[in-house]
Amino acid sequence: MKEFVLINELTREEHYLNPKKKNVIGRGLSQKNEQFFLTLPDTTVSKLHATITYDEKKGFWVFKDHSKFGSKVNDQLIHNEQVPIEHKDVINLGKGRFQVYDEYVDDITGTGEISINELFSQKKFDPNRRTGHYPEQKNDQAKILELVGIVLMLVTFILFFMLMRGE
N or C, which terminus of the chain has less Cβ within 10 Å? Predict the structure, then answer.
């Protein structure tokens, strides 16, 4: 069974899908007293916008739109219909954009190897997801790299002036 996770492209929040339940997505105001898997405080999202379920017989995940105006899966409008979803798909819900990842696929190719070109050219690929880093760690790493860059610039500047003075 595939373990899927939705990752919010803006916040990098991870939402793990439960294969045993109907994963309900919406504004959280359903009249059916639904337990929401993902609540989106967005007025462009319907109260009960969509569901994601695992079809055990067929062996894949299914995205079903229940919204007033539809959703997009891989930039294709889905309105009151269902489509299978898979690793690397992108789902647009209102103003939100989510990446779908299979927890058991190691990389883009599924082979365990990533080329540098693939790593940087794939818009859908999230390097934080692959390395297990979280947004806080990424921000700390960015700050450290920025400081290292500043220190290297200062050292270069000092060495340049020492050479110019003949020391």
Answer: C
